[in-house]
Amino acid sequence: MDLTVVLVLGLSCLLLLSLWRQNSGRGKLPPGPTPLPIIGNFLQIDVKDIRQSLTNLSKVYGPVFTLYLGTEPTVVLHGYEAVKEALIDHAEEFSGRGRHPVAEKSNKGLGIVFSNGNRWKEIRRFTLMTLRNLGMGKRNIEDRVQEEAQCLVEELRKTNGSPCDPTNILSCVPCNVICSIIFQDRFDYNDQEFLDLMERLNDNIQILSSPWIQVCNNFPFLINYCPGSHNRILEHMNYMEFYVMKKIKEHQESLDVTNPQDFIDYYLIKRSQENHNQSSEFTLENLAMTVVDLFGAGTDTTSTTLRYALLLLLKHPHVTAKVQEEIDRVVGRHRSPCMQDRSSMPYTDAMVHEVQRYIDLIPTNLPHAVTSDIKFRNYLIPKGTTVLTSLSSVLKDSKEFSNPEKFDPAHFLDEKGNFKKSDYFLPFSAGKRMCAGEGLARMELFLILTTILQNFKLKPLTHPKDIDITPVSSGFASLPPPYQLCFIPV
């Protein structure tokens, strides 16, 4: 048979199969735009700004709609009511991790972020318990953050007020904090191995937020057969896994089961207790990937938020001045800020919250999946269906925030200037998959930003009105544009 005929027949079969799969489920799923064969609704999504695409589609199809990203259906939840109903009211049913082929290729279904089922439940339960045992949310972790913030101050003083890019130096603080929890160790800011890890972590989040990765996730066959930046993610993950395995081996040789010092020690003890269980999830491979997950999640999101926060403070010097006035009045210049100060610093607390709300760091959250067939708002979502929850639509809701596209700490203040909580503040997501390190991240953001502003005046290289605060990408994460500033000691 002629090769052309074979190709035409094969393509026709694929098209028919694609159409059958899409149409067979549409009677049960929420409404949505009509998908094309094979590519689905891909052409209706701007991979450079997915959040805006979802907002536009929600205006046509409502707060719950279906997209076909390739041949697979994805249910999108848009707005606070739909997101809350799924992640909080039906937390168990929406607790699965949805498809993310690039991450699945690099994580192999291990760890805490992209695992599923019993593996995820056991590792997450163990991780939360161990982090609490190690002082998460307690005074000894606060001491570590304060010490690291002071190390940051000393490094910033070395710039002598000269222009500098804050990317690497801001990454060092949260990374050293998480290293002290995982490894019982910290790095010097000039350690080349440390800087290499920082560079790989920063590169990973840049790549994950790029349009190319959105293409790869929609058409997974590209991952194995096409060159591209996704291969760098795999290289970085292999490097970090190898690095962590070396640390695990060192811990195995020095382990004192009567006196565990860090996360790896606790895990190794748990693993030895599970030796009789042939199906135990507590393997060395799972430990390595869990540590890589904690390492990345504990560094990338916090350092990116810090970097964006400084850019917003440069853009809005009147906000910076009010925060520094509050720091001078409550903390002064002769001691380090502490978490106890936060209740007496409503404007500073509001500023930190507003930074997280405004930058909308993870616009569409990490993908969820339903763990069983579920009837949701008169629709039937089949088990395993990927669900995207638009955190943007919650953080930028005009009913809750008077001017959501404007950076304004008043969004979290009442008429008397007291801090005002909001149920719509969900930068860490919600439900059973919410960020395990939320407490640590919130502590770090408050202590690091107040320590910087206690010790330095932030000087931009251009007039504030000319500072661009538009994110350079809004795929996986909203990343600030590159910039420099001067840290002038006060």
Explain what the structure shows:
This is unspecific monooxygenase. Residues 1-25 form the signal peptide. This protein has 490 residues and is α+β, with helices and mostly antiparallel strands. Helices cover 51% and strands 9% of the residues. The protein is built from 18 helices and eleven strands. It has helices spanning 3-26, 50-61, 80-89, 101-107, 117-133, 139-157, 167-182, 192-208, 211-218, 221-225, 230-254, 263-273, 284-297, 300-315, 317-330, 346-359, 391-395, 438-455; strands at 64-69, 72-78, 96-97, 368-369, 374-376, 379-381, 386-390, 456-460, 473-474, 478-479, 485-489. The strands form four sheets. A five-stranded mixed sheet has the order 1-2-7-4-3. α4 (101-107) runs parallel beside α11, α7 packs antiparallel against α14 (300-315) and α14 (300-315) packs parallel to α18. The N and C termini lie far apart (81 Å).
